[in-house]
From TrEMBL:
Tree of life domain: Bacteria
Limits of the Bacterial bifunctional deaminase-reductase C-terminal domain: 4-168
Protein name: Deaminase
Gene3D superfamilies for the chain: Dihydrofolate Reductase, subunit A
GO molecular function terms noted in the UniProt entry: 5-amino-6-(5-phosphoribosylamino)uracil reductase activity
Gene Ontology biological process terms, A to Z: riboflavin biosynthetic process
Pfam family, one: RibD_C
Length: 193
């Protein structure tokens, strides 16, 4: 099985979005450079951010998100983001009415079942778990191998926490990588077992 990585951009005070689910300046680094990060060219980052982020994104086989993120993005129009092959949605509700069953989205009840399904779909590739409530649940359940954070130089003060409700202390190893980009500090940690 591939590595399970909890990932998101985050403010220096630990929030992925404000109270209204708006990431605002937390995502500014994604347009702060001149190197295209995606095929459409909407995301342009510094060379160091590209060299760190693009190879990681290319290794992702499946992403696990909560229903909140799925609904906020309108399911990305049925096309997984950043070239990911599959999205597993943790939800107690069925897919939206009119949802295309051929879209590579899988609706699963519970975070443990979602990570297991994502691992099946990803094979040896990375399983990414979106930070926030679902990521915190996965960390608390001992399912996360690594934490990646793109720390933006902004203080939100309140909002959606990176670690959601992780339920107590969880030790991480010393940073595996620390890399400065434009308007971002990229951090990568392994979870201590």
């Amino acid at each position: 099985m591939g590595t399970v990585v909890m990932y998101a951009s985050v403010s220096v005070d630990g929030f992925v979005a404000d109270e209204d689910d708006d990431p605002g300046p937390v995502f500014d680094w994604l347009t702060a450079g001149d190197v295209p990060l995606d095929d459409g060219g909407a995301l342009t980052v510094s060379r160091s951010s590209y060299d760190y982020t693009r190879p990681y994104w290319d290794r992702i086989g499946a992403t696990v998100v909560g229903r909140r993120v799925f609904d906020l993005t309108d399911g990305w129009g049925g096309v997984p983001p950043s070239g990911v092959a599959h999205v597993v949605v943790v939800t107690h509700r069925p897919p939206p009415d009119g949802w295309d069953p051929a879209a590579p989205f899988h609706f699963v009840d519970g975070v443990q079942a979602a990570v297991a399904r994502a691992q099946e779909l990803a094979g040896e590739r990375v399983v990414e778990v979106a930070a926030g409530d679902v990521g915190g649940q996965a960390l608390a359940a001992g399912l996360v191998d690594e934490v990646r954070m793109d720390v933006a130089p902004v203080v939100l003060g309140s909002g959606r926490r990176f670690f959601g409700t992780a339920g107590g202390p969880h030790l991480l190893e010393d940073p595996v990588e620390v890399l400065q980009g434009t308007r971002v500090l990229h951090l990568r940690y392994r979870v201590r077992r």
